[in-house]
Design goal:
Number of helices: 27
Bound molecules: 2-acetamido-2-deoxy-beta-D-glucopyranose
Largest sheet: 7 strands, mixed
Structural class: alpha+beta
Distance between the termini: 67 Å
Number of domains: 3
Radius of gyration: 35 Å
Strand order of the largest sheet: 7-6-8-15-9-16-14
Shape: elongated
Number of strands: 27
Length: 775
C-alpha cells in the first residue's frame, strides 16, 4: 500500500458528529407476506435491467401499449415489464410500519418515479419522506454491504428528472466536479479530488469522496491509499453520505438538492465499483472438489481449478473395483467432507464453494469442465440466495434425465417424487428464469461451503441422537466424548455406496430447509445416483427410515427397499409411547401381514362357519383406517376367531402347526388365548379362539387389513361408549392425546394438545395418507 496524499484533519473530525443511524434489519425478515430478501434481490434485478441493460431507453411501455410492437423489444423486456407490474402491486400491500423501511422507500420511489405520472414538483413533495429515508434514515455503508440498490434508485430518479442545477456555492468548482467521473481509474484522481474534499460546498465534498471511493481509494488515518477490501472503503462512503446529508439539509428544495449532477452518476459508479471489488474479493476464496469413482479424471478436475482465483483443492480417489457401489467411495466422500468442514470451521468465508462430482458420472468431455466452471460462477454470483446448485443430467444411454425431485421423508419412509410440472420457481426474480427449484438436484452439485459444513455438523448430531435412541445402541446413549467415532464404527458396513452419501445429503438438506437450484444451461453426464442407492443399515439407522423408494413410481409404487429397526413389537410399541411418533413401518407391516395370513387361514378353513371379530382397540380401525390399513399409532391387534362348531384349541393348533410354520408363523398357547407370532418374533397378536357360538348374530360385516371381519350392533356401540374414539389417544392404558415428544422426528404424530390450547390447525390429523403402509 502506498500513502499518497495527506488530508486535512478537520475533514475527518466532521464525521464524528453525525448522528448514528438505525441499523438495517431486513435480512430474513418477512412481514405481511412480504419477504424483504426477495424484494432486495428483485429490485437489484429490475434496476440492473432498467439502468444497465438499456431497457429504459427502449421504452418500457412499448410492449404494453403499441399494437405494432417494436421487434427489438425482446421477450426479456416483456418479462421485465411484468416484473415491474409486480412491483406496482407489491407497493399497494407494503406494511405501513416496517422493520425494513429501506425496502419500503426503495420500492415506493422506483414504482412512483416510473409510473405515477406526477409533475416533478408534486412528485418530490409526495415522496419527500421516502427520499429523506434514503438520504438521512439509511446507513449507506450497511445498505451497500447488504446488497440494497440505494444508489441505483437515486441515480434513476436523477436520470429521469434531470433538472437540478448545482447550488450557488458550488458553481465555482463546477468544471472540476464534471471532470471527476472521467478520472475514476486514473491515478491523477487523487490530486484532483483531494482539494474538493475541502470545499465549503457539501455537494462537492460528497462527489469527491464518492469518486475516490469508486476509484478504490481508502482513507486511512488521514491519508488516501490504494487498498484491497471486500468493497469500497467504508470511511469514504461515510464521508460521501455525511456530506450529501448536509447538502440535502442546506437547501430549501430538501433532498432534491442531491440530484444535481455529477453526484448521482458518481454514486452509481460507486455502486458498480463496490460490486466489482466485492466480486474480486469473493473470488479469492476456496473451492474444494470431491470425487470418487471409476473415471480417471484427476487432471480434468485440476483444470476446473485453473479458472479459480484463490485456493482450489481436489480430493480425488479412483477405485477400480468392478462393482458400481464401492464402500471406499462412501468413506472418501465422508472423510473429504469432514476435512472441508474442519477447514471451514477455522476460517469460513461466504465465498467458499464445495463441488461434489457424482460417483455415477459415466464420462467426461470438454463441456463437462466448462459447464461446471459456469455452475461455480453462477452459484457464486447468487451465493446469498443459492446454497446448493446442480445441473440437468444425461445418462449413459444418452437419455436426458430431469434430476429435480421432491424428497419425502416421513413416518419411517423415504420417497423421491417427481414434481407435477418439473420443479418450483424461485421467488427471486433474477433466479426465476434460468433456474429450477426443488428439494434435490443432480449428484454433481455445488454447495456453499458454510452450508455444506453445517450439514456435516447436523449429520454428526443426527448420528448421536437418532442412532443412540434405537434398540441395540443403548451403549451410545451414555454421554461421553468418544461417541462419534464409536457410532461411526458401529454403522460402517460392507454394503455402502457413495450414492447413499448423496441421499444422506438430500435428507440433511431437506431437514435444514435447504432449496436445491438447478441451472438450466449445461448438463452433467451422470446416471441417476438414486438408481444405485440402497437403504443401507447406516442410512436407515441415522435417519430412521425403514422403507425407501429412491426412484419415482411409474404407475404403482412397487416394493420399497426395507430395513427394519425394531426386533420386537414391544420395542416398537414402547418407542411410540416414549416419543409420540407413529409405530415403526416394519412392525405395522409384520402385524398387517400376519393378520392377513393367519386370519385368511382361519376363514379359509371353513368359510361359512368361521368368522373373525376384532375386539378392544382393534375395533377402532373401523372408524380410522379404512379396509386395508391399521391406524398408525397402534402396535397391536386383538381379535376373536369364532366358529359355529365346537373347537378344541390345543388339538386344532397342533394339527395346523406345520401349515402355520410354512406361512412363517408359530404360536404360544395361554389358556383360551393364543399368541401368534412370526418365526423371528418380529410381531405378535393375541387371538381368542372359541366355538360353538352363534356366528349369525355377528351380522355387521367390514374388512380389516383386507380380511373379512364381523361385528354385532351392541358390540360397536359398547366400544364407542368405552373408547370415545373421536378423540385420538395413544399409549394404551395411560391414554395420552396424540402429541409428538421428539421435535423434528420424521414420524411425529399430529398434535392434539398444542401446548394446552387443544387441537391444532391440522385438526389432529395427518395431512394425507402417506403415513400408511401402502402408499
Ligand atoms: C453505519 O454502519 C456502519 C457499519 O455498521 C457503522 O460502523 C457506522 O457507524 C454507521 N454509521 C452511522 C452514521 O450510523
Ligand atoms: C486395483 O488397484 C489395486 C491397487 O490400487 C491393484 O492392486 C489391483 O490389481 C487393481 N485391480 C484391478 C482389477 O485392476
Ligand atoms: C437412462 O434413463 C432412462 C430413462 O430414465 C432409463 O430407462 C435408462 O435405463 C437409463 N440408462 C442407464 C444406463 O441408467
Amino acid at each position: 500500500m502506498i500513502a499518497v496524499l495527506a488530508l486535512p484533519k478537520v475533514f475527518f473530525l466532521a464525521f464524528h458528529v453525525t448522528a448514528g443511524l438505525r441499523p438495517l434489519d431486513c435480512d430474513g425478515v418477512e412481514e405481511d407476506g412480504v419477504r424483504w430478501d426477495v424484494v432486495r434481490s428483485d429490485l437489484c434485478h429490475a434496476l440492473g435491467e432498467v439502468i444497465h441493460n438499456g431497457a429504459l431507453s427502449r421504452d418500457l411501455h412499448a410492449a404494453k401499449d403499441s399494437k405494432g410492437r417494436d421487434p427489438a423489444v425482446s421477450y426479456g423486456d416483456v418479462q421485465l415489464q411484468r416484473h415491474l407490474e409486480r412491483f406496482q402491486k407489491l407497493v399497494l400491500v407494503l406494511p405501513e410500519r416496517s422493520r425494513c423501511p429501506l425496502g419500503r422507500h426503495c420500492l415506493r420511489i422506483l414504482v412512483s418515479v416510473l409510473y405515477s405520472g406526477l409533475p416533478w414538483d408534486a412528485w418530490f413533495q409526495r415522496y419527500e419522506e421516502d427520499l429523506w429515508g434514503l438520504v438521512h434514515g439509511t446507513n449507506w455503508t450497511e445498505a451497500l454491504s447488504g446488497g440494497w440498490p440505494v444508489f441505483e434508485v437515486l441515480f434513476l430518479v436523477a436520470d429521469l428528472y434531470g433538472g437540478e442545477q448545482l447550488p450557488e456555492d458550488c458553481r465555482s468548482v463546477e468544471s472540476k466536479l464534471r471532470a471527476l467521473e472521467k478520472l475514476i481509474g486514473d491515478p491523477e484522481i487523487m490530486k484532483h479530488a483531494a482539494p474538493l474534499l475541502r470545499q465549503t460546498c457539501p455537494l462537492a465534498r460528497s462527489a469527491a469522496a464518492a469518486a475516490l471511493a469508486a476509484a478504490g481509494m481508502r482513507a486511512n488515518g488521514g491519508r488516501l491509499q490504494i487498498g484491497m477490501s471486500p468493497g469500497v472503503d467504508v470511511g469514504l462512503l461515510a464521508q460521501t453520505q455525511a456530506a450529501a446529508r448536509l447538502a440535502a439539509g442546506r437547501h430549501s428544495g430538501g433532498p432534491k438538492a442531491i440530484f444535481a449532477q455529477p453526484l448521482p452518476s458518481l454514486l452509481l459508479r460507486l455502486d458498480t465499483a463496490h460490486k466489482k471489488f466485492h466480486r474480486a474479493w469473493m473470488r479469492r476464496g476456496r473451492v474444494d472438489i470431491i470425487y470418487c469413482g471409476q473415471l480417471d479424471i484427476e487432471e480434468k478436475l485440476q483444470e476446473i481449478c485453473k479458472g479459480i482465483e484463490g485456493e482450489c483443492i481436489v480430493h480425488f480417489f479412483q477405485h477400480n473395483s468392478s462393482q458400481r457401489r464401492a464402500p471406499e467411495c462412501f468413506q472418501h466422500y465422508r472423510s473429504a467432507g469432514r476435512m472441508v468442514s474442519a477447514a471451514a470451521s477455522v476460517s469460513a468465508s461466504a465465498s467458499w464453494s464445495t463441488l461434489l462430482v457424482s460417483p455415477s458420472t459415466w464420462t467426461w468431455t470438454e463441456d463437462s469442465g466448462r459447464d461446471l466452471q459456469k455452475l461455480l460462477q453462477e452459484r457464486h454470483k447468487f451465493a446469498r440466495d443459492v446454497a446448493l446448485a446442480g445441473l440437468p443430467t444425461i445418462n449413459r444411454s444418452k437419455i436426458f434425465n430431469w434430476p429435480v425431485r421432491r424428497v419425502i421423508h416421513k413416518y419411517w419412509k423415504l420417497a423421491y417424487h417427481e414434481y407435477a410440472t418439473g420443479h418450483e420457481t424461485s421467488p427471486f426474480l433474477p433466479l426465476a428464469q434460468f433456474w429450477a427449484v426443488g428439494d434435490t438436484t443432480s449428484g454433481t452439485r455445488v454447495y456453499g461451503t458454510r452450508t455444506f459444513s453445517s450439514l456435516m455438523t447436523r449429520l454428526e448430531k443426527q448420528e448421536l441422537e437418532y442412532v443412540a435412541a434405537l434398540p441395540g445402541f443403548e451403549a451410545f446413549s451414555r454421554g461421553d466424548g468418544a461417541r462419534v467415532p464409536a457410532i461411526e464404527a458401529a454403522l460402517a458396513s460392507e454394503n455402502e455406496g457413495a450414492e447413499d452419501w448423496f441421499v444422506m445429503l438430500d435428507l440433511l438438506g431437506k431437514d435444514a430447509g435447504l432449496r436445491a437450484y438447478t441451472y438450466l444451461n449445461g448438463a452433467s453426464l451422470e446416471d441417476s445416483y438414486q438408481s444405485a442407492a440402497r437403504l443401507s443399515p447406516r442410512l436407515s439407522q441415522t435417519f430412521h427410515i425403514e422403507a425407501a423408494h429412491f426412484l419415482p413410481a411409474k404407475g404403482s409404487p412397487g416394493r420399497p427397499q426395507e430395513h427394519c429397526l425394531f426386533p420386537y413389537t414391544s420395542l416398537a410399541g414402547s418407542f411410540t409411547q416414549t416419543h409420540g411418533v407413529v409405530v415403526s413401518w416394519c412392525t405395522r407391516k409384520f402385524l398387517h401381514q400376519m393378520f392377513r395370513d393367519v386370519g385368511g387361514w382361519w376363514l379359509g378353513m371353513d368359510p361359512l362357519r368361521h368368522i373373525i371379530v376384532p375386539v378392544s382397540a382393534s375395533v377402532l380401525n373401523l372408524y380410522r383406517s379404512g379396509e386395508t390399513e391399521l391406524f398408525p399409532w397402534d402396535a397391536d391387534i386383538d381379535a376373536n376367531f369364532i366358529a359355529s362348531h365346537p373347537v378344541v384349541i390345543g388339538s386344532l393348533l397342533e394339527e395346523h402347526e406345520e401349515t402355520l410354520k410354512r406361512m412363517g408363523y408359530t404360536y404360544i398357547l395361554r389358556g383360551d388365548r393364543v399368541v401368534f407370532r412370526t418365526l423371528e418374533d418380529t410381531a405378535r397378536m393375541d387371538i381368542w379362539i372359541s366355538g360353538p357360538q352363534d356366528v349369525r348374530a355377528f351380522d355387521i360385516r367390514a374388512r380389516l387389513c383386507g380380511v373379512r371381519v364381523n361385528f354385532f350392533r351392541d358390540q360397536l356401540m359398547g366400544s364407542v361408549w368405552y373408547y370415545r374414539p373421536g378423540e385420538k389417544i395413544y399409549g394404551n392404558t395411560r391414554g395420552k392425546l396424540l402429541h409428538c415428544q421428539w421435535k423434528g422426528h420424521n414420524a411425529c404424530l399430529p398434535d392434539c394438545v398444542r401446548n394446552g390450547l387443544g387441537v391444532g390447525k391440522d385438526g389432529c390429523e395427518f395431512p394425507d395418507r402417506f403415513v400408511h403402509l401402502f402408499t
